[in-house]
Specification:
It holds the Pfam family URO-D. By secondary structure, the chain is an alpha/beta fold. The chain contains 16 helices and eleven strands. The chain has one domain: TIM Barrel. The strands form three sheets. It has a seven-stranded parallel sheet. The longest helix is centred in the middle third of the chain and has 25 residues.
C-alpha cells in the first residue's frame, strides 16, 4: 500500500489545475476538457473503431487506455483532464442485460425490461469488481501511462438515465415507456432505481480505488422529468450515490475525490441541486446563462461547462467570440474561481480536431485570471 490509501503507486501529478478548481479555488485560468473527448471526431479513434467493436474497446484495458490517451497526446499542454474511455451502459450489462452498439443507430438492448417482473432477469448483488473489473484495470493502466500529465476522470450514468435506457431499449424522443413505468408502477420503479444506484455507487468506489481522481455522474435525461418527478425519481438516487461513495471511500481510506453531477436539462433545479444533491461540481448545459448560474449557486458548488457543442461548427471567429463571452460570464472580478471549462454536452463526430484545439487555446486566453 502506498501512503495515498490506494492499492497502486502512481506517477506524481504534474497538472493539478482541475483538482484545484474542483475544490472551488481561484486558478490562474480555467482547467478545460470536453465530454466525449475520445470520440469519433478524432481520425485516430475512428482507425481503432474500424478494427474493433465498441464494447470490445471498452472491455480491453489496453485499447480503452489507448483511446483515452489519444486526445491527451494530440492536445498536449492544452487539455487539463482525461476521461476513461467506457460507456454508461456497462452498468446495465453488469446487471445482466445485453447491450449492443449499432453503427449509425447507437446503443440497442435486444431484450429491454418490459414489465416489472422482467426485473427478475437482472443479477442480484452484482459483484462490481468482477463484472466491471475491466474498467478498473483500464483506469489503473491509464493512470500509469498518463505519467501524471493530467488527472483521470471516472464516471457512470445516473440511475434515472440508465433506467430509461433499460426500459426503452435505446434512445427515445419521448421516453414513453420509461415514463409509463414511473406513473404506472412507481414502487417497482423505485426498487429498480435503487438497485441501479447501488451498482453505480459500488462502481464509482471501485474506480476511485483503481485510480480515478474525479468522478462524474451523467444524468443525460434529467431534463425529461418535471421538477416534481425529478425530485421523486432521480434526485434521491443521485444523492444515494454520493452518500455511499463518500462513506465507503472513507471506510476504505481512499482519497477524497471530487464528485460532479451533470443533470442535463434540469435547468429549473440549479439552486436546489447545489443545495441538496451532495456533489462538489454541477455540470451545466448551454441553456444556462453562466453569470446567472454563478449568482444562483454562489460558492456552494463548482460549475462545469457550458458552450453549445455546435459552436465548434461555427469557425474560428465564432469559437473565439463565444469562449470569450462564456469566460466573462463565469469569471468573478476578472478571476477564474471554481470553474471548469467544458462544452454543455459531448463533442459530436463532425467537428474538425483543429477547431477543438482552437477552443482549448481560446479558453487558455480568455479565462486567464488578471492579477
Ligand atoms: O467522454 C468520454 O470521452 C468518455 C467516454 C464516454 C462515451 N460515452 C464513449 C462513447 C462517455 C462518458 C459516455 C457517456 C454516455 N454514453 C452517455 C452520457 C453522456 C451523454 O452523451 O449524454 C450516454 C447517454 C451514453 C450512451 C451512448 N453511448 C449513446 C447514446 C451513444 C450513441 C451516440 C453516439 O454518439 O453515437 C453511445 C456511443 C458512444 N459512447 C460513442 C463514444 C465515443 C460513439 C460510438 C462509436 O464509437 O461508435
Amino acid at each position: 500500500m502506498s501512503n495515498t490509501g490506494l492499492p497502486h503507486e502512481f506517477p506524481p501529478l504534474k497538472n493539478d489545475l482541475l483538482l484545484r478548481a474542483a475544490k472551488g479555488e481561484k486558478t490562474e485560468r480555467a482547467p478545460v476538457w470536453v465530454m466525449r473527448q475520445a470520440g469519433r471526431y478524432l481520425p485516430e479513434f475512428r482507425a481503432v473503431r474500424a478494427e474493433q467493436d465498441f464494447f470490445k474497446v471498452c472491455r480491453t484495458p489496453e485499447l480503452a487506455c489507448e483511446v483515452t490517451l489519444q486526445p491527451i497526446r494530440r492536445y498536449k499542454g492544452l487539455v487539463d483532464a482525461s476521461i476513461i474511455f467506457s460507456d454508461i451502459l456497462v452498468v446495465p450489462q453488469a446487471m445482466g442485460l445485453v447491450v449492443e452498439m449499432i453503427p449509425g443507430k447507437g446503443p440497442s438492448f435486444p431484450e429491454p425490461l418490459k414489465e416489472p417482473q422482467d426485473m427478475d432477469r437482472l443479477t442480484k448483488n452484482v459483484d462490481v469488481e468482477k463484472e466491471l473489473g475491466y474498467v478498473c484495470d483500464a483506469i489503473t493502466l491509464t493512470r500509469q501511462k498518463l505519467e501524471g500529465q493530467v488527472p483521470l476522470i471516472g464516471f457512470c450514468g445516473a440511475p434515472w438515465t440508465l433506467f430509461a435506457y433499460m426500459i426503452e431499449g435505446g434512445g427515445s424522443k419521448t421516453l414513453q415507456l420509461a415514463k409509463t413505468w414511473i406513473f404506472k408502477y412507481p414502487n417497482e420503479s423505485k426498487e429498480l432505481l435503487q438497485r441501479i444506484a447501488i451498482v453505480c455507487a459500488d462502481f464509482l468506489v471501485a474506480q476511485i480505488k483503481a485510480g480515478a481522481q474525479l468522478v462524474q455522474v451523467f444524468d443525460s435525461w434529467a431534463g425529461e422529468l418535471s421538477p416534481a418527478d425529478y425530485r421523486e425519481f432521480s434526485l434521491p438516487y443521485n444523492q444515494l450515490i454520493s452518500k455511499i461513495v463518500r462513506t465507503k471511500s472513507q471506510e476504505l481510506q481512499l482519497p477524497k475525490v471530487p464528485m460532479c453531477l451533470f443533470p442535463k436539462g434540469a435547468n429549473w433545479g440549479l439552486e436546489e441541486l447545489a443545495e441538496k444533491a451532495g456533489y462538489d461540481i454541477l455540470g451545466l448545459d448551454w441553456v444556462h446563462e453562466p453569470a446567472t448560474a454563478r449568482k444562483c449557486v454562489g460558492n456552494r458548488v463548482v460549475l462545469q461547462g457550458n458552450l453549445d457543442p455546435n459552436v465548434l461548427y461555427g469557425g474560428r471567429d465564432a469559437i473565439e467570440r463565444e469562449v470569450k463571452k462564456m469566460s466573462e460570464g463565469f469569471m468573478v472580478d476578472g478571476a477564474s474561481v471554481g470553474w471548469i471549462a467544458n462544452l454543455g454536452h459531448g463533442i459530436t463526430p463532425g467537428v474538425d480536431p483543429d477547431d477543438l484545439k482552437w477552443f482549448f487555446e481560446c479558453v487558455h486566453k480568455y479565462s486567464a485570471t488578471q492579477s
